[in-house]
Amino acid sequence: MGDVVVILQHDAKLAIQIANSLRERFRRPVIAENLVLFREAVMRSRADAAVIDLGSVGVETVQNLHSTLNLRIVCTHRIPDEHMWALCIQAGALDCCYEDDVFSVCRAFSEQGAAAAA
Question: Rounded to two decimals, what is the model's pTM?
Answer without folding.
Answer: 0.92
